[in-house]
Amino acid sequence: MDWLSPEEWSAVHLSLRVAIWATLVSLPLGIFVAYALARWRFPGRQVLNGLVHLPLILPPVVTGYLLLVTLSPTAPLGGFLARFGIVFAFHWTGAALAAGIMAFPLMVRAIRLSMEAVDPGLEQAGATLGAAPIWVFLTVTLPLSLPGILTGAILAFAKAMGEFGATITFVSNIPGQTRTLPSAIYAFLQVPGGEGSALLLVVISIVLAMGALLMSELLARRLQARMTGA
Amino acid sequence: MTLTVSLAHRFGDFALDVAFEAPPGITVLFGRSGSGKSTVVNAVAGLFTPQRGHITLGDRVLLDTEARRTVPPHRRRLGVVFQEGRLFPHLTVRQNLRYARWFSRDPAESDDGQRVIEMLGIGHLLDRRPARLSGGEKQRVAIGRSLLARPELILADEPLSSLDEARKAEILPYFEWLRDDVKVPILYVSHSAVEVARLATTVIALQDGRIARQGPALEVLGDPMVTPAGVRAAGAVLEAVIAVQHGDGLTELDAGGARLFLPKVPGGAGTRLRVRIPAQDVLLSRGAPEGLSALNVLPGTVEQLRQGTGPGVIVSLRTQAGQLLARVTRRSAERLELAPGAEVHAVVKTIAIAREDVSQGAPVE
Question: What is the ipTM of this complex?
Answer without folding.
Answer: 0.83
